Amino acid sequence: MDFFKQKTLIRFINPSLLSSSDNKNPNLLRIQLIIIYKMAQLSVEQRFELIKRNTAEIIGEEDLKKLLKEKKTPVAYLGTAPTGKPHVGYFLWGLKVCDLLKAGFHVKILLADIHAVLDNTPWSIIDARYDYYAAIIPEMIKALGADTKELEFVKGSEMQLKPEYMYDLLQLSSHVSVHDCEKAASEVVKMGDNPKLSGLIYPLMQACDEQYLGVDVQLGGTDQRKIMVLARENLPKIGYERRIELMNPLLPGLIGKKMSSSDPNTKIDLLDNEEAVKKKLNKAEFIEGDIDNGVMAFLEYFLMVIKKDKKEKLLIERPEKFGGNVEYSDFEVIKKDVISKKLHPMDVKLAVAKEISKILSNIDRKKVEPLEKKAYS
Ligand code: STL
Asked: Which of 137, 188, 222, 247 to mutate to test the pocket of ligand 1 (most atoms within 8 A of CB)?
């Protein structure tokens, strides 16, 4: 940057710096600029706290601190298999992807098409499912307001069918027992009475993914824990580093029961319209005075987190006879008011429905709806 541009920039950021007698010294101005730039950046501590907030567990916490100190742009990934329709439960990992981006990571999202077939999605529909995920997941991340400059999407099969990958997969298979693969896959892969061999290959490929994506960190839900541990225990046996494993908690479904991709009434689809969102939330389990439900978990781990980040408040609209409108900037206060029954479930649900619809309205439906039809007809 030339001297004139530096001065212009400083004039814009902090004109008082130019009033000193040193203002003709280009080196001093450069140092001042570096100081301003550093002040605008998050410290290692702040980046660590941002990554750690609301996680269930980090395996390799000390390594993460070291990584933040030593590597300018660390790399993290999250894998998702294009099986069922993406729903608002995906917002939770979407938010952690946003946190990692803010903390200076390069983030890869692995759209794991082969994992989907290993987990019983038919080969005949996998391409259509992949195409839908490849369109809707970037839309979802953008809808959450992330700066996507450091976000990258990787198609599983493009990376995993290479000879070197396959060689390493076979090598891994000679170090891990059937029993350990079965245990690792048990929380992720649907295993019936007569489980397929594919379910045992699944965790081994997930371990290879860490290496072939060239990442420092893997992000997933706590349901991935056993697979992550298997990767950490076995990658060193074939000469690779163990990775840092970052886990989000598993939240109860928003509507009640488990949030399931196969039952459309237990989850809110990313393409549901305002009416559908309202109707589904209306049915959500939420007993007056009781905070143990999916709506409150969604508020605590997602909605109120982004409200706080954006320095916004959550508006809960109520008729005057029920106390009139209220605004909240803190989840703990919502919790207190729900417990004391000052706040009725119906009003909370309606506010949550509005917030979800607001986020979903950022998704370019025209772009993704035709792909959804092809993938799930
Ligand atoms: C699902 C549901 C879910 C997580 C995943 C898949 C993860 C898949 C995956 C695949 C390859 C990786 C990492 C993760 O390397 O909650 O169907």
From this structure: 188
Calpha distance 1→374 (Å, rounded): 51
Q: Are strands 326-328 and 314-316 parallel, antiparallel or unpaired?
A: antiparallel
Q: What's the 275 CA to ligand 1 centre distance in angstroms?
A: 31
State pTM to two decimals. Answer: 0.90
**CA 187 to ligand 1 centroid distance, Å:** 11
| For ligand 1, atom 14: residue with the closest CA | 79
pLDDT-derived band at 230 (thresholds 50, 70, 90) equals very high
Q: Per-residue pLDDT tens for 323-375?
A: 999 999 999 999 999 999 999 999 999 999 999 999 999 999 999 999 999 99
Q: What is the dihedral of CA 155, 160, 161, 164, to 10 degrees?
A: 140
Nearest to 251 by CA among 77, 100, 55: 55
In the reported structure, the alpha carbon of residue 116 is separated from the centroid of ligand 1 by a whole-number distance in angstroms of: 8
**Cβ < 6 Å from ligand 1: which residues?**
79-81, 83, 110, 112, 115, 119, 206, 209, 220-221, 223
Beta strands in 34-105 (DSSP E): 57-59, 75-80
Rounded Cα–Cα distance for residues 146 and 153 (Å)? 15
Residue closest via CA to ligand 1's atom 13 equals 79
Strand, helix or coil for residue 284: coil
What CA–CA distance (Å, rounded) separates 162 from 144? Answer: 34
> Who contacts 318 (Cβ-Cβ below 8 Å, separation ≥6)?
324, 325, 326, 344, 347
Q: What is the DSSP secondary structure assignment for residue 87, as one 8-state letter?
A: B
What are the distances in angstroms from CA 193 to CA 190, 196? 10, 10
Q: Please check whether residue 42 is in contact with residue 102, taking contact to mean a CB–CB distance below 8 angstroms.
A: yes
Taken in order of first residue, the domains within the chain and their CATH numbers are 1-41 (no CATH), 42-248 (3.40.50.620), 264-376 (1.10.240.10)
Residues 6+ apart with CB under 8 A from 344: 288, 318, 322
Phi/psi at 220 (5° precision):
-165, 180
Distance CA 42, CA 20 (A): 28
Averaged pLDDT, 14-40: 70
